[in-house]
Design a protein that fits this description.
Helices cover 27% and strands 37% of the residues. It is of the alpha+beta class. Strands 2-3-1-4 form a 4-stranded antiparallel sheet.
């Protein structure tokens, strides 16, 4: 069963371009958006299970310099219009 989630990230402004590039290189991340407001980046991630979600954070996302804070939400159901 595929798990999809959205990751809201606060990023040091001087590291914004570098962080965006790193996110685009992570295979599990399918879309990356630059935002205004409380968070700077929104990323959509897709994995097969929660272990893979943990590994994506532990190995790829958390070590990125310039990421201040993440807030992740699992997508329970998607509605298309």
């Amino acid at each position: 069963m595929t798990i999809r989630a959205v990751i809201f990230c606060q990023v040091e402004h001087k590291a914004m371009e570098k962080v965006l590039e790193k996110f685009k290189q992570i295979p599990e991340i399918k879309k990356v958006f630059s935002l205004t407001g409380d968070y700077d980046i929104l990323a959509e991630i897709e994995v097969d299970n929660t272990d893979e979600l943990y590994e994506a954070f532990a190995k790829h996302i958390d070590p990125i310099e310039g990421v201040i804070k993440t807030n992740t939400h699992v997508i329970m159901k998607s509605f298309e219009k």
